[in-house]
Amino acid sequence: MSSNTKYIFVTGGVTSSLGKGIISASLAKLLQARGYTVTIQKLDPYINVDPGTLNPYEHGECYVTNDGAETDLDLGHYERFLNVPTSQSNNITTGRIYQTVINKEREGAFLGKTVQVIPHITDEIKRCIKLLGETGDFEIIITEIGGTVGDIESLPYIEAVRQMKWELGHDCMVIHLTLIPYLSAAGELKTKPTQHSVKTLLEYGIQPDVLVCRTEHQLSKDIRRKIALFCNVQVNAVIESLDASTIYDVPLMMMKEQLDRVVLQKLKLPLKQDPNMEQWKDFLGKLKNPTSEIKIGIIGKYIELKDAYKSIAEAIIHAGVTNECKVNVEWIHSEKVNEGNVNELLGNLKGVIVAPGFGDRGIEGKIAAIKFVREHKIPFLGICLGMQCAVIEFARDVLGYADAHSTEMSPKTKHPVIDFMEAQKKITAKGGTMRLGLYPCKIAKGSKAYQVYGKGNIMERHRHRYEFNNKFLAEFESKGMLATGINPDSNLVEIVELKDHPWFVGVQFHPEYRSTVESPHPLFVKFIKASMEHCK
Ligand code: GLN
């Protein structure tokens, strides 16, 4: 570890869902805007090796990094805020920690010692935390500890933080995110839950340096003094975090509370410049003052839980801002769509996205929706499974293969227009075995995709097992569905589009993972633009 790498830990108290990820990303943004190199890491206390095998209902979206790690959705926030890619090292789970330690034990690496939570598990946790520091790429590492202080399963992480604080002194600090609830009957903000959660941290040997207090009402001077007194922190280290109308407000709110200053002082680092947040403010200004408004639809099967499509929702916000347009999203359950009601459900939409997904549920609804937007010339963006459904729909309706399907849903179909890759056929394990991460794609000149990207060679992130079946390619192209993006190494089809349609694009990859505030993704930007034009 380079001797001057600084480590900031973010723990959570009182309840989950206080927004540790957003606070971590906001602090990182401010430090970056002062001229520091920063990255953020998430430690998740569950026993799955990664969230790749988790149902989105359990844990929201699975976010995929350039290097093909299947990770927690908070990493999406880190990238969207910092505009710097994350990697496998940015997300560690208890499952991964134990797997590494147990593998070492089987190799005999512990030389006959009893393998224990302390020191073996905590050592492995510390090793994972320091990995990012050792790359030499970052001056500051922010590590978010998943869960709430006091949870049984996060104890080894808290113990590792205690040890690191002891070992690193001023190079290490702890921010505790907590809740100050408002009791309307008493008309008062209550500090007791925060006092208790800091006491719990103290029992584990950790004195937090900063308290970020989530609250629905402003914290008075008196309340701040009271929290500081009971929790052994300086008054200026009691940071108010009011509910925000958009997550993109939070960095500026934290700047106003001087969180970045307090943190740099604790770490004994120079303040450098005032945070340069001009581009960010420009983004927020446009977000809050749109000059037009449209309604688009997203069709998926997890719409009860918006977190399942977090990156798509955020990419749409970025694209709306670029077009100075407020994009209202209608979330439509794919299981509810059929040929009888599709006009009623989709008729007033200016653009439609069909979402990624796995398995059979809701497939026919997605296909009915695609037929409708294809025939009614409504702008369409199909992502991963959404693209595969567009291929199936075209095969059924235009090529005339009524049974056309993906072998994922219908292994015996005579027309497997979407099929397993040869190399995938022998794989039976589910974890980490998909086509994952960044792959190159070559785009045909003169295509819509080329207009979108403005160049012929791109890289995009993948997460899927099934592929367009090239046996049918010539037939598709002769009838008007063109493969305009191809992987130059494997010849796999990555982009399809329709010749006779104002804007109909399906992509096998996930553009949403790469859209950030500073660099909105061109596919979403142009899809929204096409949808705005469809209004006219
Ligand atoms: N289920 C499809 C496949 O595995 C699509 C995956 C996705 O949409 N991410 O290929």
Structure commentary:
The chain is 36% helix and 22% strand. The protein has a nine-stranded mixed sheet, sandwiched between helices. Strand 10 (210-215), helix 8 (221-231) and strand 11 (238-242) form a beta-alpha-beta unit. Helix 1 (20-33) packs parallel to helix 3 (74-82), helix 1 crosses helix 9 (250-256) and helix 5 packs across helix 6. The mean pLDDT is 95. The structure holds glutamine (GLN). Residues 356-358, 384-385, 408, 463-466 line the site of glutamine (GLN).
How would you summarize the topology of this molecule?
Elements: E1 6-12, H1 20-33, E2 38-44, H2 56-59, E3 63-64, E4 70-71, H3 74-82, E5 91-93, H4 94-107, H5 117-134, E6 140-145, H6 155-168, E7 172-179, E8 182-183, E9 188-189, H7 192-203, E10 210-215, H8 221-231, E11 238-242, H9 250-256, H10 259-266, H11 278-288, E12 292-300, H12 310-322, E13 325-333, H13 342-346, E14 352-354, H14 363-375, E15 380-383, H15 385-397, E16 405-406, E17 416-420, E18 435-443, H16 448-453, E19 457-464, E20 466-468, H17 473-478, E21 481-486, E22 493-498, E23 504-507, H18 522-535
Parallel strand pairs: 1-6, 1-7, 2-5, 2-6, 7-10, 10-11, 12-13, 12-14, 14-15, 15-23, 16-17
Antiparallel strand pairs: 3-4, 8-9, 17-20, 18-19, 18-21, 21-22, 22-23
Helix pairs in contact: 1-3, 1-9, 4-5, 5-6, 11-12, 12-18, 14-15
The structure holds glutamine.
